[in-house]
Amino acid sequence: MPISKKLALSDEQLEELMQTTWNMRIATVGPGTRINLTPMWFGWAEGKIFTFGRGQKVVNVRRNPNCTIIVDRNEKFPELQAAMFQGSARVLESAEEEAAESGMEAVRLQMGRKYAGGHGQPAPADPGPNRATASGESSRWIVFTPDRLVTWDNFKLKDLRKK
User: Which domains does the chain have, with CATH numbers?
Assistant: First the structure.
């Protein structure tokens, strides 16, 4: 049964979820037909999701761009809020492709602020942009463009039960 549209996040709620939540989970097709599901830090700009990955995730996207991403928060069922995106990703193979990608600079600034101090250190007053860039065989930015979005806000369940 599909999720009721009455449970959907508003545009404002979606934007807030995407700007403040630390982790997403990205599902790609791994070697063979196995699904590879990985939590990753991410940025959100212009309706696209950006992440910097290494290793198998980059190899998977190069081989098969079809992905699903979920961004969610809260643990208890009545409090779950989430956005599930389905679409395709692509690997930015060079610093030139990064520079040409619409939304990339906004994401670098956003991720610099969001994750400053993310490894237990205090966050600096002005963290500056995320400076990760293409290197080696498989350290790359991945840009995901959704073609389907499903959201839910289980806080709204109590309102549906009252009707």
Answer: 5-102+134-154 (2.30.110.10)
